[in-house]
Amino acid sequence: MNRLVTKLAVLFVACGSIAILMSMFVSVADVVGTMLGRPVPGALEFTESTMVLVVFGGITFAQIRHAHIRVELFYFRVGPKMKSVMDLITSLAGIVFFSLIVWQGGVEALYSFEIREATSGSIRFPLWPARWLLVIGSGLMIVQLLLDTWRDLTHFGNPRPTAFG
Predict the structure, then answer these.
(1) Of 18, 26, 87, 117, which residue has the fewest beta carbons closer than 10 angstroms?
(2) First-to-final CA distance of the chain
(3) In the chain, where are the structural domains located?
(4) For residues 29 and 40, is the Cβ–Cβ distance under 8 A?
(5) How far apart are CA 3 and CA 105, in angstroms?
């Protein structure tokens, strides 16, 4: 399961990287076009939609690498068992948080798909794909957090390594 989640996370990060690159080119073209009196239609809407993929596509990969920002003021001053407890609490809180996002995001994504919700700009971009990306990215994060919780329970007293120390 770890390998599957990692492969999916890498795929999401790759797609997010491509999306941010495309967004950058569209934004530059829009700035240059605006200076020449011909802005790129739909540049803002495109950039807004790709940001969901960039953010929610990368959260699982960051979790796999243990690279999320956290307050380490206390973490590095306690013993291994307390670190394991802190890791467990963090994972469980993350599961609750992202479960709420999946639940409410799924409700919104379904409704958005049913009504064919789209932006109101010069080019109408559908909004439901971005809403589903939020749900899928959050769901993948939940799976990774469950794997981390299992690891924390089975290796209690041997806390996870961190990205920065």
Answers:
(1) 18
(2) 26
(3) 2-154
(4) yes
(5) 26
Spatial contact of 145 and 94, defined as CB atoms under 8 Å apart: yes
Return the pLDDT at 67. 81
Q: Which two tokens stand for residue 67?
A: 């690279």
- Could you read off the pLDDT of 109-160 as tens digits, one per residue? 999 999 999 988 778 889 999 999 999 999 999 999 999 999 999 988 887 7
The model's pLDDT over 52-92, given as tens digits with 9 standing for 90+, comes to 999 998 999 999 988 887 777 888 888 999 999 999 999 99
Distances in Å between the alpha carbon of 83 and those of 79, 90, 155, 160?
A: 6, 10, 12, 9
Please, where are the H alpha helices in the chain?
A: 2-35, 43-64, 80-114, 128-154
Tokens of 87: 């890791």
Looking only at Cα atoms, what is the longest distance across the chain? 63
**CB crowding 122-138: b at 16 or more within 10 Å, else e:** eeebebbebbbbbbbbb
